[in-house]
Specification:
The structure is a single chain. The protein has one domain. It contains 3 helices and no strands. The longest helix has 133 residues. The relative contact order is 0.03.
């Protein structure tokens, strides 16, 4: 037989009416509660506490990772902004250099065109002057020939000698010198 049952049987039965407190059963209930609490603590609360601790650790790690990701995002945004600013500066410099090169090329082309125009103008002026001189020389020769023919008809002889030709050319030269203030 159970020792607890033996103690319960040995206890005198009191004839009381109403509510009575039996110390034995209070101690048994307290012991049952303590044993039950120890078992629940050992097999229930400890695993739950371990699971909660792991969850807390994972949450803290997740928060730390999120904070790190936030810092990384801010750093990458700052780096991106810095790279964009640098790219804008480089583009601005490149556009300025291209504009300067285009301006220089345009100025060079303009200068070359002006030089070519001046050269062509000088050549045309020289060609006109040479043609003028050639036509004038041809005209003088023609006038000299006509003057010799006319003088020959007037005198009645042919004037073909070099001396007569020289005289006519000297006359034409003296006559072809322009008066002051007037050009040929």
């Amino acid at each position: 037989m159970n020792p607890l049952a033996a103690v319960a049987v040995a206890a005198p039965a009191a004839a009381t009416t109403g509510l009575s407190i039996n110390i034995f059963w209070v101690i048994v209930a307290a012991l049952n509660f303590i044993i039950f609490l120890a078992l629940i603590w050992r097999f229930g609360f400890d695993p739950i506490a371990a699971i909660l601790a792991q969850r807390k650790t994972r949450i803290e790690q997740g928060l730390a990772d999120a904070e790190q990701a936030h810092r990384d995002l801010a750093a990458s945004a700052a780096e991106r902004d810095q790279m964009l600013a640098q790219a804008r500066r480089e583009v601005t410099e490149l556009v300025a250099r291209a504009q300067k090169a285009a301006d220089d090329l345009r100025e060079t082309d303009i200068a070359a065109t002006r030089a070519e125009l001046e050269r062509l103008q000088a050549k045309a002026t020289a060609d006109i002057a040479a043609e003028h001189d050639r036509v004038l020389a041809d005209l003088r020769a023609e006038v000299a020939g006509l003057a010799l023919d006319a003088a020959g008809k007037v005198v009645g002889e042919t004037m073909t000698g070099p001396r007569h030709r020289r005289l006519v050319e000297e006359f034409l030269r003296e006559r072809s010198v322009p008066p002051q203030g007037r050009k040929n």
